[in-house]
Amino acid sequence: MVLLVAVTPVLAPTSQVLLTLAFAKGLAVLGIIVLLQAGQVSFGHALYFAVSAYVAASVARSFGGELVTTLLAGVAAAAVVGLVVGVFVVRYRYIFFAMLNLAVSMIFFALLEKFYYVTGGSDGLQVPRPTVVGLTLERGEFETILFYGALVLSLLAAWGTHRYLASPLGNMLRAIKTNEVRLEYLGVSARSTLLSGYVLSAALCGLGGALMAVAQGIVTPEYAYWVRSGEFVFIAILGGSGSVAGAFVGALIYEGVRTYAAAFASDIWQMVLGIVLLVIIIFGPSGVTGLYQRLMDRLVGPARPRGAGDSERAPGAAE
Amino acid sequence: ADKPDELKIGITTFLSGPASVFGEPAKAAADMIIEQINADGGIDGVPIAASYVDEGAGGEALVSEYRRLVEDVDVDLMLASISSGNCNQLAPLAEDLKVLNLMWDCGTQRIFEENDYRYVFRTQANATPEMLATVLYLLKTKPDFSTIAVVNQDYAWGRDSWDIFQTALKAMKPDAKVVAEFFPKFGAPDFSTEISRLQALRPDVILSTSWGGDLDTFVRQAAQRGLTNTSTLVLPLAESSLQRLGSALPPGHIVGGRGDHYFLHPERVGDPAFDDFMKAFHDKTGAYPIYPVFHMSQALAAVKAVYAKAIEANGGEWPDREQVVDAMDGLSFQGLGNEVTIRDDHQGLEDQLLGTTAKSDEYGFAILKDIMLFDAEDITTPVGEESIEWLKTLGPDFVASVEPKTYAD
Amino acid sequence: MNLQLFALAFFDGIAYAALVFLVAVGLTLIFGVLRVLNVAHGSFYAMGAYATASTVGAIVAAGYSPWLAFPMMIIASALIGGLIGGPVEKLLLRRIYDMEEVLQILVTFAVFMILEDVQRLVWGVQPYFESSALMVLGTVDVLGITYTAYQLILLPVVAILVLVGLRIFLRHTLSGKLILAVTEDREAATAIGVNVDRVYLVTFVVGASLAAFGGALASATTSVIPGMGADMIVLSFAVVATAGLGRIEGAAITALLIGLGRSFAVYLAPELDVLVPYLIMLAVLLVRPEGLFGMAHTRKI
Amino acid sequence: MSSKVLMAAKGLEIRFGGVVAADDVNIEIHEGHNLAIIGPNGAGKTTFLNICTGYLKPHRGSVTFDGRDVTGLAPRRLVRMGVARAFQIPQLFTEHTVIENLLIAAAAQARRWSPLTPIATIPERGEMLHLLDMVRCAHIADRPVSELPEGQRKLIDIALALALKPKLLFMDEPTSGVASSEKFEVLDIIAKALAEAKVTAVFVEHDIGIVERFADEVAVWNRGEVLFRGVPGEILSHPDVIRDVIGETV
Amino acid sequence: MLEFRDVTVTLGGVRVLRDVSFLINTSDTVALIGANGAGKTTTLRSIMGFTHMTGEIRFLREDITKLPPAKRPGLGIGYAAEDRRLFSAFTVEENILMPAQVARLTAQETTRRLGRVYTILPELKEMAGRPAGSVSGGQGKMVALGRALMIGTRLIMLDEPFQGLAPALARRYAEALRTLRDHDPDVTLIITESNPGLLRRFADRALVVERGEMREGSLAEDAPDPLHPASPATTP
Ligand SMILES: Nc1ncnc2c1ncn2[C@@H]1O[C@H](COP(=O)(O)OP(=O)(O)OP(=O)(O)O)[C@@H](O)[C@H]1O
Ligand SMILES: Nc1ncnc2c1ncn2[C@@H]1O[C@H](COP(=O)(O)OP(=O)(O)OP(=O)(O)O)[C@@H](O)[C@H]1O
Ligand SMILES: [Mg+2]
Ligand SMILES: [Mg+2]
């Protein structure tokens, strides 16, 4: 799978940027997936995407811009903002959590538009192409480097997140979803646990945002708009909220469907996307990765009996 | 170069979201014009084939699709785009991809003031001449007003256009007083509060560069509550709303068309090509053309003209793409409006038309009277200068120095 | 700011609040019962507006009395709620109640995307504007400022009627009680004989009709344009969260706060106008983490 | 009593609306003496546990643990000081498997926060499997908790509390829902383990047989008050207790 | 009156009941016994229509396998779930009354049945006005029991009804239930309960669930409690 993606640009060169953008989004979606483990949905994670993108843009504009420092600055900024906002929002759950994140991101969005002397308003900021280890590159070379860079970063992030989720901390994060009382009674603070996940998710979104900024060459307030936050959640579910790979598979499929639907069914692309989504949810509620798993089960035989949460549960078999 | 089977053009336009009020008519116009060109034998025998991209699908989809069209479909040129934000994003991309890009509808004046491009051109005016002409029209028709308020959409266009307008106004009429500045959010469904406030303040003039549903809502609510009786509205983009507003827009308010774009264009009416198109468009879509239709016609006229010029320069042979780009410099072409010329900085020189609303029984919606047609040369920022700085250098005498053509009827 | 301006801002505020309430209350109802955050709510709102604007336009154009606009609003919203909301619940949502919350949001999001395009295919992209209903009611002058009776009087009155009606329905009728019971525990409700499927269907249809009704009422004052639904969703979500889950009264008070906040912002600090709903939400949740009327949910231990 | 006072409640008072759930409750918990709490339904037994473990803050009165005032301290603080609890209604992580539930508890207890080590590999795993074995749930170690019947959930809930290696363990009706054929046996094992690890247990129980067998002391609750307190033999034969709690024998 | 024919229930890939068949006659009082996780609750839930199952369930000679769950209470089936499942937003009395309201019983009939419930469970009367969400664990069990009695005119299914009740109380209820059954020959009772002493007080029959299968058991021998003769449950 990874290999397939890695060689794609050689076979179909124009897909390279599309894939880079998909990776950028996939990273942000990974952040969403981390929070979904705790049963929390954020409708405002575009905030971190945008914070990082704008910081990366400023760094690229004012300090000559080296790719690595640009990305690092973005991620660091997102993590710091994530920590500050996180301390406040981890007290809330469910729709309150979702909407507070949305509120914060929309305030940031409004600020980006208002302070247009600094931020370029809704025209946004151009991001000059950063140098790579001091070298100034042509667009073509730069994009190739960026693509493979994004691929490697995504793999690293996916691996790291996977380990995190399997670790005690990650398991505690998942425990928040089902029983915070018990978590407290194990001597663990649900809020700090959620905060750790929140900062991680902000950093991942930040990485995606910074990558997007250098890949697109422009940052606009739209980076912080709620529709984008919604999109991240959307992709997370599309790919399968339970798995790290789902983030990237989802992002690839989403970008693909959207781009080609916009090209070949330009007046009904939303409908096409909506229908694809419905089909996936109805027939494979655990997302594309879940569908794949099921297919493999059917071909190779089930690995182990499936757990709760599957569609076969009795009506209303609530806990 | 070898003559291709077809001339492939990529066109970005809004097919979804609020800006589709511009995008859809423009697409309809493009279809009609291209059909006509192909029926007439295409461009030197080569038919045009257009692919459309929806700008409403968002930045990433747009960029990806733009690249796909350029790199995979191998289009000969791109017409992009409506949104200024998208222009900002696509211009450097076009430059890197070395593809001829005609900016056919976006208004930001900054593009050519802040950057030099080889492949990017604009086949219409920009925000500066549009706003400057509006200020001039206002000062020429209503010189004695003293207070003004603004109600613009809260995004780049609303902010920038007010910046330009205000700078020009201050330069030419320093005593005009701005009594209120409102920037309701884009797509705001209700302006009641703004209107109450304006009724209390009673400014002589209210500027709004809004468009689409926002403008319709604002004008209607203002009319319903009698604001249009006490203040003069100045609406530089309202040509595109006249037909929808019907009788809601009362007589006596100033309307512009982002260029010399008006289906009753005083200099073009009577030209068979113009009249035929107006009728055909109305037959097809049920509405008269609005300014994006004019802009589209200009971009396609530029395509036709530039190929003709390049072929001639190439000794009658089909030009390669770089030759086409070379031919863009100084190109003149005429779409549905007056002739447009591309300047050295790739900016198009396009005349500006404004008028005052009058009741029309024939059409059932307001038409324009006291039309003024401003010559592009007089009101476009000179090459190499920065708009705001240039506007600041204008003085009150500038008003009299510009002499538009006027049409009294 | 003098008293007159204060009064004016107040009048503008309640008119806007009435509209916000009418749109958000349907969402609150659906969320309260089905626990599904219905993104397609925005579509119902937009379609109610489109259906009303286009039919009333046709009626008036055909020379009938503009007073017919009022019954038409009710008919159009009921039709949208029943003919579109009904099948959406029956064919789609019903399959997903056992799934995770996010999946449910997503299904409604998909429905929203599909309906966005359906609207465009049916009604095109040109704005509709049909204010006959507003015109026939005329204007009222208050403190030298002209208001439309429609906004100043009719909308708040309708909002109050809806609020009172829903309260009575939920608190004092059997169906209302059953709705609350189903909300808490579907299986337990089934075990005492409640037809859960029907309760859900009815609630959804009523909620969707309310959204459409909000759109129908709005259509007299605003342009009906593509994308109008999306804006309303975020606002409604903010209202639901600020109000406390499924709390109708909370929705009313939140709408009032937002309406007044917005109009005072326009008078005092126009820059904040856009942020008002979010600032109010932040302020309320800071003090009351469960929303204005929300109850802290304590787990049985 | 001679041994050390582990926890002491003084003058606890709490009411919910008109219901008095604790009304001047004074009680000491002595190290090594298992205390059983009995009483009619709604007497305030669970409420007492809630106060002692920090879930509820009393309106009046104080709780001390190990000589420190811990009134109103968050449960997680008390847990870290060595107070654990098993619940009347099992509190488990339903989307985790049984063993994962225990591993989370073990990791919390051993303060293993490393974000990159898989929880399945922590050294406490063997110990946790042993614990599961003890409550006779080893065979379901890999089942998701959401699939388990009530009885097994109760046992796992107790195992979770044990995994914390507490000094003081509160158990709220540990055997309700556990089949009668098993409960004595399981509780025997648990009691033995508790004694070995020197854990003091406080448990609410309706099954008088269990109380007789495992309690060193019995306290009888009614309407938010401690009515009687003493050794089981004495208390359980008190006529008032028989009438209100145990019921006459047939 | 109630018959299982080859009922198989699979939950999450596990076959919890396998080809179970049995017959219960009107006015039987049946104890469903078995170890933890044997499938007692599952059996009751199947009767309520809450599981996916194959086979056939007949009630009063009708096949109800395909009957929507919400229609079953209307046949006179009352069910008190093991985990209470009260409507916490309502008061205790509203909870008890609700099934009667759903069934649209007359005011008279409702009052009669409410009276009956309060006779059997007098403690409920005391807490009638309190929100069901605030009652204690054992009190919640009583409310659930009361609610089931309200609608169960033909079949009353109680899943561990005495669990968590103080023994004195449990004993009183057991007696009250027996009285109820003695006075109302139409009523059939199914109870799952692990306290054999209580069961013996009023059950006629025992069905033992074991490894997914159901067999007839005798109350006398299937409820041994030899380990703990001191336990009051087994005190003669
Ligand atoms: N959702 C599910 N997925 C998989 N297995 C399940 C599920 N629900 C229940 N089971 C299994 O079904 C079996 C029977 O459960 P049931 O609740 O009927 O037992 P029970 O006899 O009532 O036990 P208890 O006395 O503990 O209440 C158990 O072994 C349980 O693990
Ligand atoms: N959060 C609460 N809100 C309102 N009332 C409460 C609350 N918690 C407990 N109560 C009331 O306080 C009283 C004591 O409850 P508690 O749960 O402590 O009883 P208990 O002795 O544990 O009973 P059981 O044996 O039935 O579990 C009960 O009457 C209960 O209704
Ligand atoms: Mg208790
Ligand atoms: Mg059971």
Automatic annotation (TrEMBL), chain A:
Statement: the UniProt record of this protein carries the keyword Transmembrane: yes
Segments crossing the lipid bilayer: 34-55, 67-88, 94-112, 145-165, 198-220, 232-253, 268-292
Membrane topology field: Multi-pass membrane protein
UniProt keywords, alphabetically: Cell membrane, Membrane, Transmembrane, Transmembrane helix
A GO cellular component entry from the record: plasma membrane
Compartmental location: Cell membrane
Gene Ontology MF annotations: branched-chain amino acid transmembrane transporter activity
Protein's name according to its UniProt entry: Branched-chain amino acid ABC transporter permease
Lineage, top ranks: Bacteria, Pseudomonadati, Pseudomonadota, Alphaproteobacteria, Hyphomicrobiales
UniProtKB/TrEMBL annotation, chain C:
Membrane-topology descriptor: Multi-pass membrane protein
Transmembrane segments: 14-37, 44-64, 70-93, 105-129, 149-170, 199-218, 275-296
Any one GO BP annotation for this protein: amino acid transport
InterPro entries noted in UniProt: ABC_transp_permease, BCAA_transport_permease
GO CC annotations, alphabetized: plasma membrane
Compartments reported by the entry: Cell membrane
An example molecular function term from Gene Ontology annotations: transmembrane transporter activity
Source species, domain of life: Bacteria
Pfam family, one: BPD_transp_2
Keywords (A to Z) from UniProt: Amino-acid transport, Cell membrane, Membrane, Transmembrane, Transmembrane helix, Transport
Family listed: Belongs to the binding-protein-dependent transport system permease family. LivHM subfamily.
Protein name listed in UniProt: Branched-chain amino acid ABC transporter permease
Provenance organism: Acuticoccus mangrovi
TrEMBL record, chain D:
Keywords: ATP-binding, Nucleotide-binding, Transport
Stored SMART domains: AAA (SM00382)
Domain of life where this protein originates: Bacteria
Keyword Glycosyltransferase: no
Domain ABC transporter: residue ranges: 7-248
Listed name of the protein: ATP-binding cassette domain-containing protein
InterPro entries: AAA+_ATPase (IPR003593), ABC_AA/LPS_Transport (IPR051120), ABC_transporter-like_ATP-bd (IPR003439), P-loop_NTPase (IPR027417)
One GO term (biological process): L-valine import across plasma membrane
Signal peptide segment: none
A molecular-function term among this protein's GO annotations: ATP hydrolysis activity
GO cellular component, one term: plasma membrane
Pfam family, one: ABC_tran
UniProtKB/TrEMBL annotation, chain E:
InterPro entries on file: AAA+_ATPase, ABC_transporter-like_ATP-bd, BCAA_Transport_ATP-bd_LivF, P-loop_NTPase
PROSITE patterns, sorted: ABC_TRANSPORTER_2
Gene3D superfamilies noted in UniProt: P-loop containing nucleotide triphosphate hydrolases
Any GO BP: L-amino acid transport
Name the UniProt record assigns to this protein: ATP-binding cassette domain-containing protein
UniProtKB keywords: Amino-acid transport, ATP-binding, Nucleotide-binding, Transport
Entry similarity comment: Belongs to the ABC transporter superfamily.
One MF term in the entry's GO annotations: ATP hydrolysis activity
